[in-house]
């Protein structure tokens, strides 16, 4: 089942607050306790609760928070509580001798006077409420919480024994009508969703993990870091792989509370487990502790919630990864080295090498051998992340210039091989200082290519491309660079040099070594595959021809290219080749072949290291799945793709995936379409055009059409952004024709249809609806029934892609019904409904069902068809408008804000094509739907 993309924690908390208010109103009151560690966002949630209360109920909102400096002052909080406005004219001045019950009764009396019709009462930081005020509240709460009162409390955990937060938790947990809501530290996925919501673009998984480490999952710390970003930094985030982390506070970490309370032996055991960074068997834990000469103490950290057992006690792990990180940050350097040396002895592979490096006080020849052997093995098996981590850790230890230079080279070559050169940009200055060499210059060029909006060092590029050398290593690097330059030039807004660069690259690969045994530096062996690069370069020539609309040349080249690709060994270059030819097949209108090749490329991704076009491989298949109406599989693929899109080289896929998600959400009536569209609009800011460069425009058109907004379709399908698109098949023009017809602008629609007829199969494809469908709609609008029927019959006779096919059937059904062919109309419309139900196209289903009811064969009037486009809530608004009610009256009757009603009224008038609310009653009479 297709799931929505992860929602921002801020969005989820707003939605939770709205649900709580709705429940409180429905049951006549509710008590909510929001609990969590410091910085998790309890105050934010209480504030959202207040906002939701103001918008969704007629209850006034009162807010008070306790203060730590007053927690020893009797009745100090009650005075704050009174000052919130809940107790007008409060002049009651209790002192230390005053008993709580009289104060509580006075509070109740005033509450009944001032909040007789209900209230939202929010109290934050209850852990600091003074003892006397706590006793007053314990008396008051049970006597008001079912009197149309929403009580919301914010309490910091962990609770101390007998604290007010603990009392509230116990009190509320016994009531099935009340709620205790725990706010946990944010996860990496939640942090990435928060960043997307706040910044308008996503961040990489790696950046999410860095933010998690910097914030310990704190909502407030994350918010502070994101607010520190400058407008210029935010504007470039959609093109880069990281963001600067500033503004993280150094407050006492609340995650360490349980650890601080442990005895010394328990802390020592906990440190071993946390430094291990993985599950530890009891035997390994005891072995490590024995090497350190320490006892093992597990009962205390388990009871404190710091460590936990898994596998029925077979292994020990930190209770939470954030807790483990917080504890690691407190351990002294000498202690870290001692534990790491012990762990290196009892582990193997990556873990052993990493622990050995962490445990060493200085670099040694033996360590160098371990590192080189492990990195070589890891890279050969696709372990780029582990290899990078080992090399980075080794760099921290290397103390002589020669060793450090070799490690830097190894790290750069590893990242270039893994297509993640952007991850070493922080070391750019050190690479600049390396001794001159072909390899060093090559690395600097690659780093420059990853910098946002920076110019390539053209002089260095040309020097390496023109290099005449007898050294096989230099010739290999030069050939590989020529391939990268082809890719970089294709990703510009001026690809005119691509054919010449491809020819030059072919020449260099023909001169390069054909066997890695010729190389002096084994780290470059992965670059040696000249025959495979020659195939890929020929595929890139086809991509260029496609962009230049030289489609006959593309069609002629594809059969031989696909044969050569099949002969290639499975690997990343084969995937890149499949990406190129699958896009070309789709450009030729050969949908089945394009989808088959795209799927083959994605299947290979599971078995090979990432290719240069990893994102595009998945994007093409996802686009095919969306066109084919398989939204569930498309959604699953998009979920996966969005996880890695911000780590992939082809950054242009990031907004395109968001656009595809927006299209699916629009068709299926999903939530939060605007957020997906906001991310998709970054596609317009990328200077080069990748696959499906107009997907953001298509998403805007689909969202507008699904909402019944033809004017919105016209706005989305015109303007400078649309005019500058070149690598496009102008599917948005299909939407535009339909919108022009809906708006009665028939001459413009006719002119555009003729243009599409001339462009058919070259500049415009019928993936989004056939020419016969458009001509049928136009003839119908002009009253030419015979022409309309002829085109409709041709349109539905062809098995097209499901959504446009269903909408064609639906339009044909309406036409037949109006022509009096009721039985035929019923059959045609049922076919449309069957397809839409299979697709889950909820945004269209209700309108199609309403436009023609099998139980009532009479043709619907134009007014009735307009009413059928409204949602249930909009229909309620219409009925009240017809009665002449004001926005304030409607808001009161529907328990929503006036602003919400104002927005609904604007949408209703737009959908009904009315200029004023006074015309609503007339339209209802025309539709035969006048309210009684």
From TrEMBL:
The keyword Cell membrane does not apply. One of its GO terms (biological process) is regulation of DNA-templated transcription. CDD domains: LuxR_C_like. Keywords: DNA-binding, Transcription, Transcription regulation. Residues 863-928 form the HTH luxR-type domain. Signal peptide: none annotated. InterPro entries: AAA_16, P-loop_NTPase, Sig_transdc_resp-reg_C-effctor, TPR-like_helical_dom_sf, Tscrpt_reg_LuxR_C, WH-like_DNA-bd_sf. Gene3D superfamilies: P-loop containing nucleotide triphosphate hydrolases, Tetratricopeptide repeat domain, Winged helix-like DNA-binding domain superfamily/Winged helix DNA-binding domain. It comes from the Bacteria. GO terms for molecular function: DNA binding. It holds the Pfam family AAA_16. This is AAA family ATPase. It comes from Aeromicrobium piscarium.
